[in-house]
Amino acid sequence: xxxxxxxxxxxxxxxxxxxxxxxxxxxxxxxxxxxxxxxxxxxxxxxxxxxxxxxxxxxxxxxxxxxxxxxxxxx
Length: 75
What we know:
Blueprint: H1 10-37, H2 42-74
Helix pairs in contact: 1-2
């Protein structure tokens, strides 16, 4: 009795990928907004900027992978 992972259909994967792309845009926007308006001292600004950049890149990679997976499922 084996359990197989069942992926959502291609439309759901594409919708989640689109959501992640919008979240990525938000994270990249936060790179410019938060350090300028947060009032944090200099070393903490760099930490916040780095964290936003890493999360933005990770969500972008996840979105691209989901988009590719949805295209494979449509075939």
